[in-house]
Write a structure and sequence with these properties.
The chain is an alpha+beta fold. It is 21% helix and 34% strand.
């Protein structure tokens, strides 16, 4: 058995279907039928695994805390014999530039009970237009994940 700190590993990835991902994001990854949870060091390998499932493929990023015990699997794979709580799991979305798309999605998923709205749009700056993502909240404010600032929508440069 090894831990994350034993080999300096960053996030691991788990490939699944969209239907399963929806359940995993709520209930976590569960050890089922005596089978461990399969994780990969490679996002691409997880995607290939997800494509073997029925339905649209989804890659989940798993950020385990130091000390979490894993078994080494075949090349670049790891097995967890413990359920992984949903708080360590997020959807792995390649961000076109920066991380605003990914960060806005994560905010929405963590605050779903507040019914935030994920917005993909364009920010107009002096040097041109920038594709951007932000979250509109029911109280009329905007959470800009890039600046980590909550502001009234009329002051947010992303809402013009």
């Amino acid at each position: 058995m090894v831990t994350k700190s034993d080999y300096g590993l960053g996030p691991l990835y788990h490939g699944t279907s969209k239907e399963s991902a929806d359940a995993i994001l709520i209930g976590g990854l569960l050890v089922m039928g005596g089978q461990p949870i399969w994780l990969s060091y490679s996002q691409q390998e997880a995607l290939e695994n997800a494509q073997e499932k029925e339905g649209p493929p989804v890659v989940l990023e798993v950020n385990l805390p130091d000390g979490w015990l894993l078994e080494r699997g075949e090349a670049g794979t790891y097995l967890s014999w413990r359920d992984i709580p949903h708080g360590y799991i997020q959807i792995s979305i390649p961000a076109p530039t920066g991380t605003c798309y990914h960060d806005a999605w994560q905010y929405v998923m963590r605050h779903v009970e507040a019914q935030p709205v994920l917005v993909h749009g364009t920010v107009h700056t002096l040097s041109g237009q920038i594709n951007h993502a932000w979250v509109e909240l029911p109280d009329g404010t905007v959470w800009d994940t890039a600046s980590k600032v909550k502001m009234p929508s009329f002051t947010c440069p992303c809402c013009f």
